[in-house]
Amino acid sequence: MDLWFSEAHSKHVKFSVRVERQLFSAQSDFQRIDVFESREFGRFLTLDGFMMLTERDEFIYHEMISHVPMAVHPSPKRILVVGAGDGGVIRELTRYDTVEHIDLVEIDSMVVDVARRFLPQTSCALDDPRVHIHYADGLRHVRQCEDEYDLIIVDSTDPFGPGEDLFTREFYGSCFKALKEDGIMVNQHESPFYAQDAEAMQRAHKRIVESFPISRVYQAHIPTYPSGHWLFGFASKRYHPVKDFDVPRWEALGLKTRYYTTRLHVGAFLLPAYVEELLRDVE
């Protein structure tokens, strides 16, 4: 039998992957969680029918959401990661010896359990002693923090369901308060291509611009995400993502990456004209 997983990228477009077998399926308190195995993309995780990561291309997303802010901030020691129960962001952050403490706030403990069991490539650093996992609501956690973190990474699902609160003006304002005086926040910023995704991206960008004095958007190509064109938001109290980017300092670390480079870092902030127009419309 020919089995396929299909995800709607718009009302008129679907993305499909041939499935070799289904490894896991369950309904948690928050969402349906599935793990499939495919020939082209390896194992992949879906939440409520939306693809979150595949073994084949997850490195692109996780490197770009992690190394861009880590290369800009001169000394990030305390970090908050919201979402990211699969462990990919944690894997990248724990490669830095200067990091002293990481709080991982994930609302759904089953996501972490499933990642540990079925996605060891991604979840391999969750047991690092610097990592402290909190099963809690991200908005509630960040509300209680003030002047605490050098970096906040918001690795949320899409802006509906369990991740909806992580796209609100209140959440971004709370992140601003939770950051130290030179703190940085990075978030996944949706795709600019299909109309519904572009509208969600614009709403998020407008709210971040209203909360942070420095706000820029950068991009990456992720084959399994809608349209393949994905955006990230960089917001900071002090540091500009390109002007304050110290290339020699980061390259001296000797970190081996598969997607991120210091040249790509600069180029990722050079956006296509249609994306610049979408951003100007809400700025």
Tell me the span between the first and last alpha carbons.
51 Å
Radius of gyration: 18 Å
Number of helices: 10
- Residue stretches low in confidence (pLDDT < 50, at least 5 long) are none
Q: Largest sheet, described in full? A: 7 strands, mixed
Overall SS class: alpha/beta
How would you characterize the overall build of this protein?
It contains ten helices and twelve strands. It is an alpha/beta fold and 283 residues long. The strands form two sheets. The chain has a seven-stranded mixed β-sheet, with helices on both faces. The longest helix has 17 residues.
What labels would you give this structure?
283 residues; alpha/beta; seven-stranded mixed beta sheet
Layout of secondary structure:
Layout (H helix, E strand, L loop, with lengths): L3 E7 L2 E15 L4 E7 L3 E6 L2 E5 L3 H15 L5 E6 L4 H6 L7 E6 L2 H10 L1 H4 L7 E5 L2 H6 L5 E7 L13 H10 E10 L6 H17 L2 E8 L7 E8 L10 H5 L10 H6 L5 H10 L1
Parallel strand pairs: 6-7, 6-9, 7-8, 9-10
Antiparallel strand pairs: 1-2, 2-3, 3-4, 4-5, 10-12, 11-12
Summary of the model, kept short:
The chain is α/β, with parallel strands linked by helices and 283 residues long. It has helices spanning 58-72, 88-93, 109-118, 120-123, 138-143, 169-178, 195-211, 247-251, 262-267, 273-282; strands at 4-10, 13-27, 32-38, 42-47, 50-54, 78-83, 101-106, 131-135, 149-155, 179-188, 214-221, 229-236. Helix content is 31%, strand content 32%.
